[in-house]
Design a protein that fits this description.
Length: 261
């Protein structure tokens, strides 16, 4: 299954990439995979009905054309280590939350029978399938509750901009990172740091933030260790970032808006 995912997942994610001038430069999971000159049209919301048919439809517009028409906000792409440190900070905070949830479930609601975890009883029934199912059912139930709390927690953090552009979890706030929508992204050349123009650059809605959180936890839980290599996409965008049409950028209170050259 892992080999099949490694083979097919890059081509699946390519459909979410915008039309690039040189598609072969898109980093893949394996350098042996290369585009064969295919170009995938970039999809943006449908054009108004009163647009003349002679104008190109939005379904066929490239990211550069979208930004040339609507303009784009200039942001700096953060280095990968900042995202990793932010994820680690959030992990510590969520781990404390997990301990609190587990303590409440065990001490107040008695959802888990601690007598089942007796070492001597476990050593006597280590080969009993029914005993193993009883032992793990309570832990699985707690893990589902914990994952749901994590998704809601991240969704509220990412959709609550509080007067700033884009949302962020506590870890991202400490590292100066923000998450904004990006249906079109093009690089800006000649800058010391990786800089892009993106559109529309708005804060995430709660539904988009919740979907991103669900996809993130789904990929990390079910595609491990494949989830580690999702950071190789362009502009340090992960798979769930591409699926949700968002991007992580350096915080900028007043991003410059300009059109593509």
């Amino acid at each position: 299954m892992y080999q099949n995912l490694s083979t097919c997942f890059p081509y699946y994610m390519m459909t979410f990439q915008g039309l690039q001038n040189n598609p072969t430069n898109v980093p893949l999971l394996n350098n042996n995979y290369q585009f064969q000159g295919q170009q995938f049209p970039f999809q943006v919301p449908n054009a108004p009905r009163n647009v003349p048919e002679t104008q190109p439809q939005n379904e066929t517009l490239t990211p550069a054309e979208v930004i040339a028409r609507h303009g784009g906000y200039e942001y700096i792409i953060p280095p990968l280590y900042k995202r990793l440190i932010a994820e680690f900070i959030d992990f510590i905070l969520l781990f404390i939350l997990k301990l609190i949830v587990t303590f409440i479930a065990v001490d107040m609601f008695e959802l888990i029978d601690l007598d089942k975890f007796d070492f001597y009883k476990f050593s006597e029934n280590y080969d009993d399938y029914k005993y193993a199912m009883e032992l793990t059912s309570g832990i699985l139930f707690l893990e589902v509750i914990y994952r749901m709390l994590v998704c809601v927690y991240e969704a509220f953090c990412l959709c609550g901009s509080i007067g700033r552009t884009g949302g962020a979890t506590p870890g991202k706030v400490l590292l100066g990172l923000r998450v904004v929508t990006a249906s079109a992204v093009i690089p800006v050349e000649g800058r010391p740091k990786e800089t892009v123009l993106l559109y529309p650059g708005r804060p995430l809605t709660f539904l988009v933030a919740l979907f991103r959180s669900l996809m993130k936890n789904f990929l990390i839980s079910l595609l491990f260790p494949l989830c580690v290599v999702l950071f190789v996409f362009k502009h340090n965008r992960t798979g769930y970032d591409l699926l949700c049409g968002v991007i992580v950028v350096e915080e900028n209170m007043f991003p410059l808006r300009r059109h593509a050259p």
